[in-house]
Amino acid sequence: MPTVDGRLEVEFTPGSGTWVDISAFVDSAEITRPRPTSTDPVSATTLTVVLRNAPDATTTIAPFSPDSALSPYYPHLERDRRVRFTATWAGGASTSVRFNGWADSWDPDYADGSPGMATTTLTASCILSRYARRRLLSDYAEKVLELGVASGPNDYWPYDEGTRGYADAATLRGYGSDGPGVEVDVPAAQVIQPFKPDGLTGSLELGSADGGIIVDGIATFSRGDASAPSPVILHRLRDGEQVGRVSAWFRLDQDPALANDDAMAGYNIDGDLLWRLIVVLSGGLVVWRVVDAAGTMHSEWSTGHARDESWTWVSVLFAESGGLPTSAIAVRDRVIPDRVVAGNSGTWPADPRTTRWLVVGGRMPPKTKGKQVNTLMGSVSSVWVQYAQLAGSVSEFSAAAWPFTGNDRTSDMLEDYSTPVDAIVGGGLGHGDADDTPVMLTGQAGSTLLDAWAEHAVTVGGHVYTTPGGQRQWWTPANTRPTTVTLSLDANADLHMDAGGWQVRKDERPTRVTASGPAGSVTFVDTATEAATGLRLEGPTLDTAAGTVDVAQQAAAWEMAPRAGRMTFGLDLAVTATDRISDVMALLPGQRIRITNLPSGLFGVTQADVYASGWVEKYDPQTRGAAFEWDTDPADDPPEARWDSAEFGRWAMGDGAATVTGGTCVGTTSTGTVIVTSSSPLTTSGAQYPMDLDWNGERITISGVGGASSPQTATVTARGVAPAVARSHATGEAVDVWHAARWAR
Fold this sequence. Notes:
mainly beta
């Protein structure tokens, strides 16, 4: 009798690479891979292990009591420890990693004071559960923080406290990245109230995104009058890094009160002013300028239009040319694409790249807090500081081809919101398996990466799984219905009732499903069922990233499509007719399984193909056994009939009314002929051909039939038409019209 052993290993010291084998303590182990559904399309694989925690006979110490300082594993019985479970068989010659993830909890059970019966339950989950703990920023913020090392480290302040109910927050959180997946701590920015003995001051209000181009928070500055400054925001930048770019979004609510308003100002470590970004009106047009401490202008750009309440992205770039610092302005507004629009002029008295303090919303020496002047009348969002060593000349800075994000990317960040998942969270397992599958971020700041995956899967119809080895697996829509059979099982010889047996479920479906997305919401209604039953059954609302209403309707329609019976079945690897361990262990989620020798009296067919959507693995160290229970989806899933359709509008021959009793196709997978014996013969009308038949689950194409009465000989021109696969059939198997129309029961 074949046996399966399990090896449980834990990396108690994070990052050490040292795996400790604790298999000797395992009482039972269970791995659950959830079947994805429309409302829960992405779920983590989990491992549950019961460990014996009786005190050691020699040391009298219980090994797996998390809070016991006497435990040999103390203090590492914590969450986020790497956990790996491996199945071994054939005397250890064959192995398969069945789970690779992180510990979630260690739960001791002291057996009501019976130490010898004490246990600890270890629960762990795969990388998808870590995605659920990764809160997303806005699409813009995620793109900023995904920039590679070549662009330099990046710091970002979204000003989103207002979206969390803190409109008058005194500190504003920031985020930093030294490259994709490498996050660093960034000091919070400070809101500095103005010091005015007469009390005449303005205000600063933190608000939420405007629903348009801005998806992060907004800081709105408002002076009391020309001489009553508002609060400003003070940022502490990184030491030891040269500032290559400072960017933010601006909206002007009023004209500058004096000659200009200070939008931002940079100071060195000693608090000396280095540069200012100011906005002026010249000839009634908005002009942005970069000036030094003396007020000398170095870069200037006129927008060409008068002040309005639209948003403008302004980026100040600092670099070196000929050994001297140089500057430029990059602008995006309602008429200007992302590009550098103004280069350098003049010699800088001090290097602006040594900026260590950044003041937003006015001018204020950082060592005399509250003494701000010339504050802004308007709003600011999405402050981004890039510590890049940009090298360039005046001519290079002036070129329209200078890329928006720096010197290592050429795509327009503001137009492309599809972010590779690896850029957000790193690789699936140990950051080693690169995955550039895009997630369409839709500005839902605060949602998790798992939410984004789920939204993406619902929208396009794909699936996200974790492989048995622990790596993330993305099945695109084109690959979710494979035709190749990976695992074949015999219902009589392999599927045993004590291991779950097999059964079929057909759930009631709703008559209405709503799909919502950036393009709006659409409800798909099954009017025929509602008219026939008089019932209106509300289904789920699917959250999608659909860019058009048509795509949203497609997602809703897919949820509404009637499903064939969903089969669940189980097997015990110790009692199959032949040793199936290697075949079962090689199966991946989503692959195709064929079940043969089904009782035709129950199923109507003797063979069915299903997809391995989800399953549970149970390991018993005492018996050295392993059992699998699958929850599948039908591989040949006929939708409802539709009138005036060449594929769906033909009437069925009738349940059990027709069989294949001969022909050259019997016993082969080749084309040729089939002899169909039926009580309701196929039509001889040439207009109805070619026609597809369902031969015991296989879709075949026939070009016509001979004779108007049964038995009829049909010419087969194609076998295994997608999504079915070619199969070898015996005589007497059922045949009917593929996707036949039937009267409702």
